[in-house]
């Protein structure tokens, strides 16, 4: 029997069918070890020694693998064909060696780019050893990420309260977003005018021509900058006689796009399908691992983490066959197309992302796939086939026109193009991120004209325009920019973007990335005190070194030594910085963001409340804010950035909506440290005025006086509960909008409006809450997966307070972050429940319940310790007896339990997530 190790159960199930008897395929469920999140996991003083901890969830799986290997004839490591896959195989092998599970069994490594019977069988015929260079590259990357994250993040916590983490790639990606926002804020709008003439041929065909020259000088887009200049040109053209000077038609060709790489797949799925990169990769993983087709599990696409654009010869032949059969031989190029990537340090050995079998058309597999899976498969199929189609043939026509007027010589130009042969365009057009598809002139036809032909004037128009700032990055355009700069690797882009959103450094607004104030502060801090480590060239250069390690051109520890020498010195220099110095530097650097100029020219730092204080950046327990220098006499505060009104003009932290007719008090919208809120009047005699937060989804700019008064009047009575007779109220509380009857509170759902919810809907919400009960008893039953195959009883997937989990009886097992709740299978759930049950420690016997005042006391530890010193020996003995026994950890073993207790190391979150 030969044991084969793969990452996932779905992959194991598929490969087991292909290999048949004589093989046992076992899943490791991804990485089995990682660096523990504490100091010392990477020790530069010990030549970058790395301490690995086995994931508690992997203990049972590794034990199963070890048992299987002990009686096996051979071990075959068949994890994914990339750096991470090589690392997983290395980790599994290291653990097996530590367990002494391997004796004389041969160990081999096999890789396949697609999970098909042919690919797997061929890989088994060509085994190799673990690639040491790839493992070294993984170790270097992991060590760098750890050293940056666990060295830089504590500096942030100490010097910039409220900041959460910094990371080697994460921080540079955040800087890209913040730099673009700074460009937008500092952009100076410029006025310009376009001049166009509607002209007609002698055959009465009308077309448009634009002014491009005057008196021998070219006129570009921004050259006509005032209304007076535009009016002068318009007057001259209205009196001019028009004649065709020349007509030039040039044939052109548009070539198809190469098949997908990881990054181009993420970009196009974002543009065309609206999928986040992380979602795209999760769906692609499912398509790669396989779906059930006619009782056989088949991988539908090749491996999705790749930066290669080449395809296997058999795939190219299959694509050409599909093109000829569906579109005719005219659409098949004379020779197969060969693509090469332009990305830096691309791993050309990897194929592009493509369907494993192009005869499986999207419409044929759509019925067995989930909707998003079907859409992504169709996108990959279309791009793959189109990449081998004939080029489109386009004829571009340029007509130069002269306008003769007394004393002036004006020139106009009309352009257009027509598709003579659509080629690959019949099947596929790439999405556009920052421009509409119709912006080009591909389908703008011009009428037939000849040189010297007179043209009639049908109207002159002069249109005013204003230049616009560059657009914010979308997830797709940020991925593209990172790839262009050589920052990060394609397989990491999705996780980097996810971390930025999880840390609340950026948010998505209309599919655009907007930096949060927290993110801008972190970027400003790093640019001020660690500029080199957020430079684009430095990060790209480090990525190049990591790729050279994977090619066995550099020693990985030499790279770490060079990096750590300068980086640790830079960190050391910040230890003497005072928080006040940091805040002053950030206040100055972010002035344009937090104190934009006012239209009336007044001082933007002048406090609007007291009129004499100066506003500046402050840092408190909950992060940064703007406060008045006259504190505590003046308690004015607002968030860092001023808000933008519907007109696009900056607003201050307080906006008046009008006067409440009932009380005569002013109603205002205000920006507080915890968000936007409404306020009625001002504080008097120490009493706080009435306030109301805004319901989620209601924009501050959309609030009018009527809406504000309705919100300030909450809670409102909707009606009476037909069972209890108690009033039913609707209001906004600490956890959002709610309805209440007696002691029962029920949160409103996303589609409910607290101002408009009716009695029937409120009764239904309250009844549902009462039926579910309070707390965890209110947890919904979840999605049923089926009965446990050996123990019996239902298994369900449920949403939980700390994430989704699977339940069987009294056992709850949290789902891994990369396992979507709606995609969990019964087999996966059984494995998770088994691992949870095996990992659960035996519960210690419960100590007898103490009685009397001592049992009721909940004093701090210091108080208890003091009390023990002054209490009687008998009481002290009782107190000592109540101490719980020390439980062994999963990794400590019997020996470590005998060691004296030490203070646990402070843990920190990983910088790269």
Write the layout of secondary structure elements.
Layout: E1 2-6, H1 9-19, E2 23-27, E3 33-34, E4 42-43, E5 49-50, E6 53-54, H2 59-70, E7 74-77, H3 83-98, E8 107-109, H4 117-124, H5 132-159, H6 170-186, E9 191-200, E10 206-214, E11 217-218, H7 227-238, E12 241-254, H8 262-273, H9 277-289, E13 291-293, E14 296-298, H10 313-327, H11 362-365, H12 371-386, E15 392-405, E16 408-421, E17 454-466, H13 475-485, H14 490-502, E18 506-509, E19 512-515, H15 517-529, H16 536-550, H17 556-573, H18 579-589, H19 591-594, E20 615-620, E21 623-628, E22 637-638, E23 643-644, E24 650-651, E25 654-659, E26 666-672, E27 675-680, E28 690-693, H20 705-712, E29 716-720, E30 727-733, E31 736-741, E32 744-747, H21 759-772, E33 783-787, E34 794-798, E35 805-808, E36 811-814, H22 826-839, H23 853-856, H24 861-870, H25 873-881, H26 893-897
Parallel strand pairs: 1-2, 1-7, 7-8
Antiparallel strand pairs: 3-6, 4-5, 9-10, 9-17, 10-11, 10-16, 12-15, 12-17, 13-14, 15-16, 18-19, 20-21, 21-22, 23-24, 25-26, 26-27, 27-28, 29-30, 30-31, 31-32, 33-34, 34-35, 35-36
Helix pairs in contact: 3-5, 5-16, 5-17, 6-15, 8-9, 8-13, 9-12, 9-14, 15-18
């Amino acid at each position: 029997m030969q044991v084969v190790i793969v990452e996932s159960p779905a992959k194991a199930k598929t490969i087991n069918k292909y290999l048949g008897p004589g093989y046992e395929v076992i899943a490791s469920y991804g990485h089995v070890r990682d660096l523990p999140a504490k100091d010392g996991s990477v020790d530069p003083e010990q030549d970058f020694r790395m301490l690995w901890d086995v994931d508690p969830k992997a203990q049972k799986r590794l034990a199963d693998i070890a048992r299987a290997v002990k009686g096996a004839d051979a071990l075959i490591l068949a994890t994914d064909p990339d750096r991470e896959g090589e690392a997983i195989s290395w980790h599994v092998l290291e653990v097996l060696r530590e367990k002494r599970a391997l004796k004389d069994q041969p160990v081999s490594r096999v890789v396949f780019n697609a999970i098909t019977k042919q690919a797997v069988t061929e890989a088994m015929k060509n085994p190799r050893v673990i690639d040491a260079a790839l493992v070294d590259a993984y170790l270097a990357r992991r060590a760098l990420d750890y050293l940056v994250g666990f060295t830089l993040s504590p500096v942030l916590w100490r010097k910039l309260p409220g900041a959460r983490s910094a990371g080697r790639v994460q921080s540079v990606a955040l800087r890209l977003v913040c730099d673009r926002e700074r460009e937008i804020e500092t952009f100076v709008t410029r006025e310009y005018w376009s001049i166009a003439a509607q002209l007609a041929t002698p055959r009465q065909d009308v077309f448009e021509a634009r002014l491009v020259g005057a008196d021998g000088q070219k006129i570009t887009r921004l050259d006509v900058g005032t209304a007076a200049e535009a009016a002068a040109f318009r007057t001259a053209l209205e009196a001019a006689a028009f004649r065709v000077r020349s007509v030039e038609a040039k044939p052109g060709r548009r070539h198809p796009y190469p098949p997908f790489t990881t990054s181009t797949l993420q970009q196009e799925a974002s543009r065309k399908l609206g999928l986040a990169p992380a979602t795209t990769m999760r769906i692609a993983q499912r398509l790669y691992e396989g779906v059930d087709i006619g009782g056989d599990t088949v991988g539908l696409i090749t491996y999705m983490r790749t930066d290669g654009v080449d395809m296997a010869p058999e795939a190219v032949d299959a694509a050409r066959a599909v093109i000829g059969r569906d579109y005719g031989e005219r659409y098949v190029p004379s020779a197969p197309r060969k693509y090469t990537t332009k990305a830096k340090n691309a791993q050309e050995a990897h194929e592009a992302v493509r369907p494993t079998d192009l005869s499986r058309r999207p419409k044929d597999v759509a019925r067995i796939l989930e909707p998003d899976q079907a859409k992504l498969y169709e996108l990959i199929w279309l791009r793959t086939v189109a990449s081998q189609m004939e080029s489109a043939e386009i004829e571009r026509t340029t007509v130069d026109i002269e306008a003769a007027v007394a004393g002036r010589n004006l020139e106009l130009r009309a352009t257009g193009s027509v598709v003579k042969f659509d080629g690959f365009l019949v099947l596929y057009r790439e999405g556009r991120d920052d421009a509409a598809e119709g912006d080009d002139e591909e389908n703008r036809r011009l009428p037939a004209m000849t040189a010297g032909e007179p043209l009639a004037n049908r109207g002159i128009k002069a249109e005013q325009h204003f230049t616009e700032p560059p657009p914010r990055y979308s997830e797709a355009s940020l991925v593209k920019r990172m790839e262009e700069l050589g920052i990060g690797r394609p397989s990491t882009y999705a996780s980097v973007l996810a971390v930025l959103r999880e840390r609340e450094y950026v948010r998505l607004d209309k599919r655009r990335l907007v930096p949060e104030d927290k993110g801008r502060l972190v970027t400003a801090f790093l640019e001020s005190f660690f500029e080199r480590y957020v430079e684009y060239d430095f990060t790209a250069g480090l990525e190049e070194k990591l790729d050279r390690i994977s090619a066995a051109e550099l020693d990985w520890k030499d790279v770490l030594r060079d990096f750590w020498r300068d980086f640790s010195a830079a960190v050391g220099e910040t230890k003497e910085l005072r928080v006040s110095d940091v805040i002053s530097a950030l206040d100055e650097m972010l002035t344009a963001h937090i104190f934009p100029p006012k239209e009336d020219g007044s001082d933007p730092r002048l406090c609007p409340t007291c009129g004499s204080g100066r506003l500046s950046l402050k840092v408190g327990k909950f992060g940064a804010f703007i406060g008045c220098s006259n504190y505590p006499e003046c308690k004015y505060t607002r968030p860092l950035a001023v808000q933008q009104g519907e007109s696009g003009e900056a607003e201050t932290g307080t906006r008046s909506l009008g006067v409440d007719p009932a009380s005569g008090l002013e109603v205002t919208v205000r920006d507080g440290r915890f968000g936007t809120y409404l306020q009625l009047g001002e504080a008097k005699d120490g009493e706080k005025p009435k306030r109301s937060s805004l319901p989620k989804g209601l924009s501050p700019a959309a609030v009018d006086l009527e809406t504000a008064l309705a919100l300030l009047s909450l809670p409102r009575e909707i009606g009476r509960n037909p069972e209890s007779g108690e009033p039913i109220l609707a209001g906004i509380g600490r956890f959002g909008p709610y309805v209440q009857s007696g002691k029962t509170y029920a949160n409103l759902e996303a589609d409910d409006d607290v101002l408009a919810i009716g009695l029937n809907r409120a009764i239904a919400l309250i009844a549902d809450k009462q039926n579910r009960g309070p707390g965890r008893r209110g947890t919904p039953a979840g999605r049923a997966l089926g009965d446990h195959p050996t123990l019996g009883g239902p298994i369900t997937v449920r949403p939980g307070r700390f994430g989704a989990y699977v339940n069987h009886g009294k056992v709850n097992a949290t789902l891994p972050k990369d396992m979507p709740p709606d995609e969990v299978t019964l087999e996966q759930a059984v494995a998770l429940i088994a691992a949870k049950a095996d990992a659960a420690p035996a519960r210690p016997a419960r100590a007898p319940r103490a009685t009397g005042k001592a049992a009721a006391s909940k004093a701090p530890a210091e108080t208890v310790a003091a009390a023990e010193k002054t209490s009687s020996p008998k009481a002290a003995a009782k107190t000592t007896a109540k101490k719980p026994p020390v439980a062994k950890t999963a990794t400590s073993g019997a020996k470590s339990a005998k060691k004296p207790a030490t203070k646990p190391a402070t843990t920190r979150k990983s910088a790269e997530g």
